[in-house]
Amino acid sequence: MIADIIKSIYLFLFRISFMWMNRKPLQNKVVLFVTFPQNSYYLTEELKKRDPSMQIVLVCNESSYPKMAELQSEQVQLLELHRLKLYFTRIYHLATAKIIIIDNYFPFLAVTNFKKEVRCVQIWHAAGAIKSFGLEANNTTTRTAISKRRFHRVYHRFDKIVVGSEEMADIFTRAFGVPSSSFLRTGIPRTDLFFDEHKKQELRDKFYRNYPHAKGKRVVLYAPTFRDTASHHMPLDFERLTRVLGPEVLVLVKLHPVTKQNLAFPSEVSDQLIQIDADEDVNEWLVVTDLLVTDYSSIPFEFCLLKKPMVFYAYDLEEYIAERGIWENYEEFVPGPVVFTQEQLEEAIVAPDFDVDNQKVLAFCDTWNKYSQGKSSEQLIDYVIKKVT
């Protein structure tokens, strides 16, 4: 209840500030609120290329700021999302832009009544979903009435939502309570990478320059999603894992950006284990990955574009379903074998007759990436330019 009161006071002040700034005229400007840089990075690159005169403002959280800073120029301005000094500057740009692009849930949208010419576009931060979110998340029923009203107001502020498939459109319909007319079927910008052979080769070359000992090894990426419980412990004994897999396998570990945990690997296995910074772009590492190990993450929806095998390590499946919820029958839905213990995971990785149902991966990919065909950024920027100019 106290948290709701604090949020209500903040939103009241935000509303007053926005109303004041909203008196100013609109500009030919696009403002992106960025918490995960992948989609916004590709969109900004495309917009800079297509319209050098367009003013672009990137409002970034701490984890996305370094990546987005690569795009800073006279045309592109960067602002820190949570820096108090920039509070009125952020609201000014929010109130005077013709297009607002967001990639997550932003509570301030509950109190921002945009001018009728403005479009707010939700690009989200994933191509698909296994875990429940929004109005369908298990914890929604325990939320206060104030919180639920705020959720609805935020979701109804989305004029358009970008999707890569009809399946994701159905999920957003349920999660956000929005009509079918809300969707832009342009595909997901962050998937454009997987259709760019030149860029993929550059990433492979960079990887082997940085890790020359990886040449000739099978690369296994472990990339779990986050858990809501703060006391959650890593469910793998990595020293044992490297011993079982042997020196011909290199294990990459990429934790979710929400999970700030530094894993201390023994020095004797340092040539077999690499922890990737949690804030790095996981898609760039997928390009060099031979086998993905994950759980309830959305990464498989993009990794399947590379047509490579996956194993799903769901050691806490029943607990996760009870606490968070998932959209489908998990074991039937995912495009790869499901294992529940480290021993089963090790056996799945090393089994000489490891049978990847490639047809299931291909079918999964076709279903969830119907509109993601390598031109998603271009198609979304077509919409943006049309609405701004």
UniProtKB/TrEMBL annotation:
Keywords tagged on the record: Cell membrane, Membrane, Teichoic acid biosynthesis, Transferase
Q: Per UniProt, what is the membrane topology?
A: Peripheral membrane protein
First and last residue of the signal peptide? none
Q: What is the organism of origin for this protein?
A: Chryseomicrobium excrementi
Superkingdom of this entry's organism?
Answer: Bacteria
The entry's protein name is CDP-glycerol--glycerophosphate glycerophosphotransferase
Its cellular-component GO annotations read: plasma membrane
Where is it mostly found?
A: membrane
